[in-house]
Amino acid sequence: MSDLSTQPAETRCGSATTSRPVRELHPAREVPLGGIRGVRVDRVLPQRTLPTVGAWCFLDQFGPQRIPMTVLPHPHIGLQTVTWPISGEIRHRDSVGSDVLVRPGQLNLMTAGRGVSHSEVSPEGGEALHGLQLWVALPADRARIDPGFEQHLDLPRHETGPLRATVLMGDLAGVRSPATTHSPLLGAELSLAPGRAELPVREDFEHAVLVVSGEVEVDGVRVTPGPLLYLGTGRSGLEFRGAAEGTRLLLLGGEPFPDDLVMWWNFVGRDHAEIEAARADWEDHHGRFGVVAGHGTDRIPAPELPGVRLRPRRRS
C-alpha cells in the first residue's frame, strides 16, 4: 500500500535503545489517505518515540469499509510490504509480473529492494474491506536486492489452551513461516478465547501487540482495539488472558533494528540523498521501478520533498 499523503511528514527512525521489559501504550493516529476516496487508516507505527519494533517500521489498519480501494501504481525501496486482509479482497499487481487476489488468511509479501512498483484495487460490491498493512525495513546489506513477490496460502499454526497463533513471518514456539525474512523477526496473528495462555518468546526480541477485535490482558495490561502495546525486550514468555470470544490480535517482534533509517513517502533509506534519488527516478520513469501492467500511464506522482534535509532520529 502507498502512503498517499500529498505532504508526507519526514519520519526519522533511529536505531533501538530499549533493552528491558516495558509496558507502553502508544495511541493510533487517524491518517487520511487522499486518493482512496476519503479512506482513513489507523496508524500505530511509526511513532515519534517508537519508530520500529524489530525491523517492523510501519503498521496501518484500514476498515472495515465498503468504499472500494483504488491505489494506482506507486514505488517502494528498501523494504518489504506485508498485506494481511481480515475481510474482503484486494487485487495486487506489481512490476515483477505478479497479478493475484489478496484474500483473508493468505500472506502477501512484496520485497522492494532497489526498487519496485505496484497497485492495489478492491473489487466493487465485494465484502467490506478490513485489513493490516505493514512494512519491514531491509537491513543495509540487503536494501538493494532484486525485487520479488511471494504469496503463502497455507501458513503454519501453533495452539496452546485457548490461544491459536498463525505465524506470518519468522518463528514462534518452534513453528516457522515459509515467508522470506532478512533479519530476525516475528509476525503472528493470535485468536484467543476466554481463558489464559502463555507463549514462549525470545528474550533478545522486542515485542508489541495490536488488538484488532475484542479485548485481552497482556502481561497484566488490558488492551482493546486502537493502541499499540510495546513490551520492550527481556521476556522469555508472554501471558495472555482472554475476556471474550472473538478476540483477535497481532503480535510483532524482532531483534532491535541496528540501523538508522529515514522514511519518507513510500521509501525507506539511510540518508537524504538516497530518498532524493529514489524520488527523482520515479518522476523520471527510471527503469529501476519497472511497469505495472493494466494501468496505462496512470500512476501516483511523488510529492515534493520538504525544504530541509531528511535526517535519522534516534528513538526516545
Automatic annotation (TrEMBL):
InterPro entries: Pirin, Pirin_C_dom, Pirin_N_dom, RmlC-like_jellyroll, RmlC_Cupin_sf. Coiled coil: none annotated. Residues 1-28 are annotated as: Disordered. Gene3D superfamilies: Jelly Rolls. Residues 195-285 form the Pirin C-terminal domain. Pfam families: Pirin, Pirin_C. Belongs to the pirin family. This is Pirin-related protein. Residues 39-136 form the Pirin N-terminal domain. Residues 1-20 have a biased composition (Polar residues).
